[in-house]
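QA checklist item 7 of 12: single-chain prediction sanity check.
[x] sequence parsed
[x] length recorded as 298
[x] structure emitted
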Amino acid sequence: MEEALNLRTLFSDGEIYAFNGLFPGTQSLYSQNHITPVLNDLGQIALWQNWAKSIGRPLPAIIQIDTGMWRVGLPPQEVRQLAAEPERLEGLKIQYILSHLACSEQQDHPKNNQQLESFQHALSLFPQTRGSFANSHGIFLGPQYHFDLVRPGRSLYGLSCRASEAHGMKSAVRVYARIVQVSEANQGETIGYDATYHVKEPMKLATLSIGYADGFARSLTNCGIVYIGNAPAPVVGRVSMDLITIDVSKVPAHDLYPGGWAEIIGEHISADDLANAAGTNSREILVNLGKRYHRLYT
């Protein structure tokens, strides 16, 4: 709801849908600010219906159903009950029936088709209602998954998947960090908290002003890679809150100076590459970037 209210201050019109359900006591915020809730169970539907009756006008809503992910949404028995008791929807303008794919990143996973059949069956119980089913990967599963409204997420940022690469999509995000210091370490030294990296031969180091507070995951300790110019520079030592240390022994000297830039995500390393090294996915990398970056929108 807080995100929806922030958006409404920027856009006086246009549809805004708020996920994760309707909580008691928030109904007036939705109706006064023309925000449409996604209702996830029969109790939320009743709450929204009663509010519509109390203010004397019909209200829009989206109903989310669970087709096999078991996260949020009406389970099958509640879908059947809702279809059998249409009076539960009186006073509501149902804009979409919504569900979410669990395995769309795996194009050949049998659960995709199982969920599609479940969703098609549920829609048949509400023949006048539009459907929304596909996320980014779901879009690339084919037109039978598209229905009336798709919900792209990662593909808006050009994050790669096999299908998106075939369509020529490119990353929309680049991340850089500044060099704070350049130094040289002798054999036998240790680097960073907990002394997790032992210097086996003399090496040149650079310290960058980025850390796990900026979404550079702590799990990238001793395994992450950044680029300076066209040269890779591995992370050595523990990732700190605000700083990381990298091995720049193979980086040309003219690229090494305080205030210079290191590529975290960009031409040489994608968000997916960084995520694979961190043991996560590229969406987690992007949402954890934090608020301390200077952002440039082109």
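[x] summary fact logged: The mean pLDDT is 95.
[ ] second reviewer sign-off
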